[in-house]
Amino acid sequence: MNILERIKRSVANQAEGVFLRAEFERFGSPAQVGRALRQLTQGGVLVRLGLGVYAKAKPSVLSGQPIPARPLEVLAPEVLKKLGIAVMPSRLTQDYNAGRSTQLPSGIVLNTGKRRIARRLSFNGQAVQYERA
Fold first, then answer.
1. How far apart are CA 6 and CA 11, in angstroms?
2. Cα–Cα distances in Å, from 113 out to 43, 89, 98, 131?
3. In the list 50, 60, 87, 114, which could disulfide-bond 121, CB 3.0-4.6 Å?
4. Where does 1-69 sit in CATH, by number?
5. pLDDT, tens digit, for every residue of 25-60?
6. Model pTM?
7. Considering just the CA atoms, what is the radius of gyration of the chain in Å?
């Protein structure tokens, strides 16, 4: 079985929706893994969310193009958790959930505490923003 098939099987067997490139290092050299991940993204099995970050894909109902199987609001905290970063809801989301505000927060904003995050996570023009408390 070649590297492409091994990675494809590994992705299908895992319940989680996001993957870091480092999780596939055991399958081969960096060039081989990169080539396999590129083929899987072109084939619609995976979508790329950022540098070294991939998510399971499904075809869009409207366009047929691959989109993440779960929304970016759900996937972004999973990615940061895998990277060892504690994530909390943003200040505006906390105010809305507590009933202190009636304004719905727009966009995806995650509170990372005192950590400064430079990693960009996005898909199809929708990017994750980070706020520091």
1. 9
2. 37, 10, 19, 8
3. 50
4. 1.10.10
5. 999 999 999 999 999 999 999 999 999 999 999 999
6. 0.87
7. 17
